[in-house]
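All the exercises in this workshop are built on plain-text protein records. A record pairs a protein's sequence with a compact description of its fold. Backbone structure tokens are a discrete shorthand for how the chain folds in space. Once this layout is familiar, the rest of the handout is easier to follow. As an example, a complete record with its sequence and its structure tokens follows.
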Amino acid sequence: MAPTLSIGDEAPNFDLTSTEDVVIMLRDEVPRAAVLLYLFGDPSAEDTRRGLEDLAAASRRLAELPLSVLGISPAKLDELKAAQRELRLPFPLLVDDRGFSSDYGVEAAAEGETPAPALVVVDRQQKIMWMANPVGSVADAIGQLERDLKRLPSTTSNYPRKVINRLVDRWVN
């Protein structure tokens, strides 16, 4: 049985290969911006494709917020690369070949079935900020996500004062 995560819990770390042929680790991503994880099964499933398309369509708006998007699936890398090309996704898809999705409460599907997609927002302190598991509609969830993300502090709010002073000094001079 998958663990039960709640808002405020520490998000489980992962290190997964992306469609950009690099390994992405959650703990390396969160200091820069909050991370929206789209956890899905079969990239050819209708609800998954619609969710990926909705995320791609909203990517410009979401990029204005302190947010990066990652799709995570147990599908093979070639399948994910094909889906990324076909759907022209502006964010990487990660191969969950070690079952990290179950750490987020997404159960593996029984043979012949596809698990319902889930959305999880991890804040810059690597805490679960928002989640929908399963997500009914990514398009419907995006409005709520945008409202929640606009309330996040700026990406420099936790920089040490000496770093901020150095940046301001450099800008002024």
